[in-house]
Amino acid sequence: MQYDVIVIGSGPGGYVAAIRCAQLGLKTAVIEKYSTFGGTCLNVGCIPSKALLDSSEHYHNAAHNFEQHGISLSNLKLDIKKMIDRKNDVIAQNTAGITYLFKKNKIDSFQGVGSFVDKNTIKITKEDGSTEEIKGKNIIIATGSKPTALPFLPVDKKRIITSTEALNLTEVPKNLIVIGGGVIGLELGSVYARLGSKVTVVEYAKSIIATMDAGLGKELQRVLKKNLGMEFLLGHKVSGASVKGKKVTVTAEDAKGQHVVIEGDYCIVAVGRTAYTAGLGLENIGITPEERGNKIPVNEHLETSVEGVYAIGDVVKGAMLAHKAEDEGIYVAERIVGQKPHIDYNLIPGVVYTWPEVASVGKTEEQLKEEGKKYKAGSFSFKASGRAKASGDTDGFIKVLADADTDEVLGVHMIGPRAADMIAEAVVAMEYRASAEDIGRICHAHPTFTEALKEAALAATSNRAIHA
Length: 468
Hints:
Strand content: 25-35%
Distance between the termini: 65 Å
């Protein structure tokens, strides 16, 4: 069969690319090796983790915060099986939605492992070992990523586990060890800390969420320790782990080289993700992934060294984010038909779905200092927000960074209630190259959490926040 476009992988990058290709009139096929569409994000990543984060937040609030609202409960009980069942139902609804969209857009789908025979021919190897071949004028590689493995820390998927297994535990660990203080480790650590686990995070860097603005990591660590009792061992290099019965022992060295031993019921290894290119047959078309991170080299238009073969999402350079992959999928689809789309990689927001949520876009203070860029900063605490006081969500702040001369917004960093949603306002403003004063002069509804962004912008403009 001959197609205009063949997409390998049906995660956020792949399925969005396929739908956009079909919308543009291209005959499109998708190859997915698993039995459901949606990739890591919908099946074992973004969506199921958010389902558990929401469920655990409800439980934690019922156990610790309802009483201050005049709501008294007795005999509060956790049914983790039902919580996991709900999560699975959320997954099923979302993956079924992709199936519907493929049918609606007349996209052909094939189950199996797709690999290159040549640059226009893809062999599909099915579960039963049988194969078939399809041809395409353009190929989009969207095979995503998998959890990074550490050679000295073997994952047995029973006691030493990855994020995938952590989404399906049938018990709440009494003591949970999380290796990695990034987004995945903190989100999953939060889930079980809310449900009653004693969580210890072991991180090699000197701060959590180390790639974000330093102030965000410092505040998040303070809040997670205060609200959930999470412990943090920063600047610790893990050297190994062992399992004996139902106990896991993790060994590490602190910054002074001292030997540290941590014991728990489970250990989640969350030290990042690696591009997944196994079985693609890239060598058959002369493509060699980069040694570091296994990424596929592409040019500024996301095209590989082989004409007509593109790669998007986690398998190429840049942040491993579902929404980045989606934008890249749309970008490639539109490039194929001759349009001239654009992506500003500086304006792709990052989010941590703990509570409070953390969100960031643009340059951090650390980056601006390193670049020697003159800037001004304005912050506003949620402690001074009327809406935050009403809901009891007063932890956190919003910081706006603006050019010292032009007042153009260079970065917005926030930790607080609904930061994941609020960051979109900052992205819109920065896409249109707004000044801090522009945001400060926009009328924000009262009382809302977004007023904190206005106040931070006013603080950056001329240190004139009204409520600080």
